[in-house]
Target: Peptidoglycan DD-metalloendopeptidase family protein
Amino acid sequence: MLTIRLMSLLTLLLNVPVGNAQNQKAGLSIAPKSVSVGQGEVARWAGNCLRCSLEKRAWSPVNGTCYYPVDMDMKPGSYTISRRTTGGKLETATLQVTLKACTQEDLKNFPKKEYINVAPQNQARAAKEAAVVNPIISYKTTVRPAVFDLPVGKPAHSLPKGEGNFGACRTFDGQPRDRHTGQDYPVGMGEPVLSAGNGRVLLAANHFYSGNSVYIDHGNGLISEYFHLKSYSVKPNQTVTKGQKIGLVGETGRVTGPHLHFGVRWHGACINPGFLLIDPSDIPQVK
Model:
């Protein structure tokens, strides 16, 4: 009987992992770290970060905090994120990406018919412009250091509530088109448009779909976009400061009327710019 008891005790001890045995002895329970965000949103991991990574992509933190932008088309599911602390410690967590329902936006009786049945020359023009823009907004392994803080500045002096159409699935007179990549704000014609942060102008040009457009690099892979402007007052490679006037609200390009289209690309991800206008403490955090 004593031999059987000793064998049972030995079997039990052999089946308890050393780490778990030590944790149980100390009365500790270590839960895996995780954070859940929707498509087009942002997660953060605060505290003495030196390097951040999401799957095979990596970048530097902003003021010691790792931010993980999730593209609006990122497939829902579980992803591995990690960070290297200033003390040299490597930590991992799970990023749970949830489906964000696509709001349907049907634009009927669209006034600018040249954007409904697009002529071959305009199709060629748009393709040429996209070939210039796509490398600007894509993920890059090497980027300039961040010259911005969060939250970023408002792109207008008096910024009304957004129209909630970021990522909207749109049709024009019943014809499906690409999803909406920014947030529209009902700012009046001719109102000043402001840079969301310090940075350098990457592109300022008139494009077929986005009209008069400005793209600004704020470092750390953050690119802000301002579309449909009446006019712009900056040029490529010009340095701008947070709150600086860069143009006027207009209705150029494919629009139904004057408004401010404000968009953001961060490490190549197309995200809802509203997440960069709120206090960082309100952004979902790894726990």
User: Anything to note?
Assistant: DSSP finds three helices and 19 strands in the chain. The CA atoms of residues 75 and 97 lie 7 Å apart. The radius of gyration is 24 Å. The longest helix spans residues 120-137.
